[in-house]
Amino acid sequence: MGNEILITKKMSTGEVTKKYPATKAVFTKYFGKGCFDCPSFGTEDINLACMMHNTDVDKFVKELNEAAKQEASKTS
Known about the structure:
DUF1858; ScdA-like_N_sf; DUF1858 domain-containing protein
Protein backbone atom coordinates (compact mmCIF):
# COMPACT_ATOMS: atom_id res chain seq x y z
CA MET A 1 0.00 0.00 0.00
CA GLY A 2 1.09 3.60 -0.45
CA ASN A 3 2.26 3.28 -4.06
CA GLU A 4 -1.09 2.36 -5.60
CA ILE A 5 -2.32 4.59 -8.39
CA LEU A 6 -5.31 6.59 -7.25
CA ILE A 7 -5.81 8.72 -10.36
CA THR A 8 -5.40 7.84 -14.04
CA LYS A 9 -5.54 9.95 -17.19
CA LYS A 10 -8.80 8.24 -18.18
CA MET A 11 -10.67 9.58 -15.14
CA SER A 12 -12.85 12.66 -15.56
CA THR A 13 -11.77 15.98 -14.13
CA GLY A 14 -14.94 16.16 -12.05
CA GLU A 15 -14.51 12.66 -10.67
CA VAL A 16 -10.99 13.47 -9.52
CA THR A 17 -11.74 16.81 -7.85
CA LYS A 18 -14.85 15.42 -6.15
CA LYS A 19 -13.04 12.39 -4.74
CA TYR A 20 -9.78 14.23 -3.98
CA PRO A 21 -10.45 17.97 -3.33
CA ALA A 22 -6.73 18.65 -2.76
CA THR A 23 -6.15 18.09 -6.48
CA LYS A 24 -7.87 21.39 -7.27
CA ALA A 25 -4.56 23.11 -6.52
CA VAL A 26 -2.86 21.08 -9.27
CA PHE A 27 -5.60 21.94 -11.78
CA THR A 28 -5.21 25.62 -10.89
CA LYS A 29 -1.41 25.44 -11.16
CA TYR A 30 -1.53 24.09 -14.71
CA PHE A 31 -4.82 25.37 -16.13
CA GLY A 32 -5.51 28.57 -14.18
CA LYS A 33 -8.31 29.60 -11.84
CA GLY A 34 -10.82 29.78 -14.70
CA CYS A 35 -10.51 26.03 -15.15
CA PHE A 36 -13.48 25.35 -12.89
CA ASP A 37 -15.73 27.77 -14.82
CA CYS A 38 -15.09 26.02 -18.14
CA PRO A 39 -18.20 24.24 -19.50
CA SER A 40 -16.10 21.13 -20.21
CA PHE A 41 -14.74 20.86 -16.69
CA GLY A 42 -16.13 17.87 -14.89
CA THR A 43 -16.99 15.84 -17.96
CA GLU A 44 -13.74 15.68 -19.92
CA ASP A 45 -11.08 13.16 -19.03
CA ILE A 46 -7.70 14.24 -17.74
CA ASN A 47 -5.96 13.20 -20.96
CA LEU A 48 -8.17 15.53 -23.04
CA ALA A 49 -7.79 18.39 -20.57
CA CYS A 50 -4.01 18.07 -20.78
CA MET A 51 -4.10 17.96 -24.58
CA MET A 52 -6.26 21.11 -24.66
CA HIS A 53 -3.81 22.91 -22.36
CA ASN A 54 -0.62 21.53 -23.94
CA THR A 55 0.35 19.90 -20.63
CA ASP A 56 2.40 16.74 -20.10
CA VAL A 57 -0.28 14.28 -18.97
CA ASP A 58 2.12 11.93 -17.16
CA LYS A 59 3.63 14.76 -15.11
CA PHE A 60 0.15 16.15 -14.40
CA VAL A 61 -1.24 12.78 -13.26
CA LYS A 62 1.82 12.24 -11.07
CA GLU A 63 1.19 15.56 -9.31
CA LEU A 64 -2.52 14.77 -8.94
CA ASN A 65 -1.63 11.49 -7.25
CA GLU A 66 0.87 13.19 -4.95
CA ALA A 67 -1.79 15.71 -3.88
CA ALA A 68 -4.36 12.94 -3.34
CA LYS A 69 -1.93 10.85 -1.30
CA GLN A 70 -0.99 13.83 0.88
CA GLU A 71 -4.67 14.52 1.47
CA ALA A 72 -5.31 10.87 2.35
CA SER A 73 -2.40 10.78 4.80
CA LYS A 74 -3.80 13.77 6.68
CA THR A 75 -7.15 12.08 7.19
CA SER A 76 -5.83 8.67 8.25
